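Severity: low
Component: inverse-folding endpoint
Summary: output formatting inconsistent between runs
Steps to reproduce: submit the following structure tokens with default settings.
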């Protein structure tokens, strides 16, 4: 039976209502899946999240865990980095799109963990490990490619000399990401309170490692050892932050509430530096330079520009921690 115009208008209104309802639910899910408004990366918030949340719903419906999606992100990211090796910009472009898709998957695993309340210390460590491995693969295939290319303004090939530059850049990159991760976690720690799982401390990890049963799986012990080494390397770069945390923990929760508000307020001035040092700025700089055939200039960006940003960030955050320590802790005055 043919619908009359009135029926068609009613159906159109119902469909519009259902569409708005779906958009509202998706919007609410996006908000629920974010860590905080302070630490959110603007690129992820406006570009990736609306797409990733729809993928997340599909993964949850299919029964995928956050860690399974993290592993899929690793496979896609490494496969994309392989396509950076050929000296063909269109093949490189496919690799770039694969890397972007890997980032979407990386957004999904965090959303799945938060929406299903399955966030864990191991998941956080695995997520960081996958991010590191993906960029490690990028460096390896860039190095293999550049061995056949010539040094700028000369006719000499890079040959094996390029690996010295690649190795130093990888070390600088790791240090930049490590400290950005630490200060983001510290911000969330003060923002959400001590119950937040965003910040691991060396002394707690040592206690957890010592308390592991002797029959615990080997992978569990290995993961905790590596996480302990990673966390210890972060804390050694932030001594004033450690003094502040130790002093607050020894004085109880009342003082922490006063410090938290002031710390978060001051931290907000610099928190976006953590996003500058993690993925998007460096990745898109590399993608653009690679497509233009100017990828050799990516290395000084990491070694000079991003390293300067890292040290500026450390100095500012250490100053914040020192000021709060000396102001709120009577035994911290110097």
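Observed output (run 2 of 3):
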């Amino acid at each position: 039976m043919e619908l009359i115009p009135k029926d068609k208008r009613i159906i159109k209104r119902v469909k519009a209502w259902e569409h708005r309802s779906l958009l509202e639910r998706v919007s609410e899910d996006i908000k629920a899946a974010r860590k905080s408004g302070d630490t959110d990366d603007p690129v992820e918030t406006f570009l990736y999240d609306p797409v990733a949340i729809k993928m997340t719903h599909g993964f949850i419906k299919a029964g995928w865990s956050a860690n399974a999606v993290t592993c899929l992100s690793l496979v896609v990211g490494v496969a994309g980095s392989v396509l950076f090796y050929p000296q063909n910009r269109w093949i490189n472009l496919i690799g770039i799109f694969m890397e972007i898709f890997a980032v979407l998957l990386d957004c999904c695993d965090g959303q799945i963990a938060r929406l299903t309340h399955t966030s864990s210390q191991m998941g956080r460590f695995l997520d960081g490990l996958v991010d590191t491995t993906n960029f490690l693969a990028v460096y390896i295939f860039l190095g293999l490619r550049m061995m056949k290319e010539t040094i700028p303004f000369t006719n000499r090939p890079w040959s094996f000399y390029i690996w010295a530059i690649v190795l130093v850049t990888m070390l600088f990159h790791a240090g930049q990401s490590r400290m950005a991760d630490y200060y983001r976690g510290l911000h969330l720690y003060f923002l959400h309170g001590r119950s937040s799982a965003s910040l691991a401390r060396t002394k707690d990890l040592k206690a957890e490692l010592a308390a592991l049963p002797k029959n615990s799986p080997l992978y569990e012990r290995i993961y905790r050892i590596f996480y302990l080494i990673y966390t210890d390397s972060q804390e050694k770069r932030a001594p004033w932050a450690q003094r502040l945390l130790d002093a607050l923990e020894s004085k109880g929760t009342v003082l922490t509430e006063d410090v938290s508000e002031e710390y978060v307020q001051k931290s907000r001035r610099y928190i976006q530096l953590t996003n500058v040092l993690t993925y998007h700025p460096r990745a898109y700089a590399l993608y653009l330079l690679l497509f233009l055939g100017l990828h050799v200039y990516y290395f000084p960006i990491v070694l000079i520009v991003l390293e300067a940003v890292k040290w500026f960030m450390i100095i500012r955050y250490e100053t914040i921690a020192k000021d709060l320590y000396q102001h709120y802790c009577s035994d911290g005055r110097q």
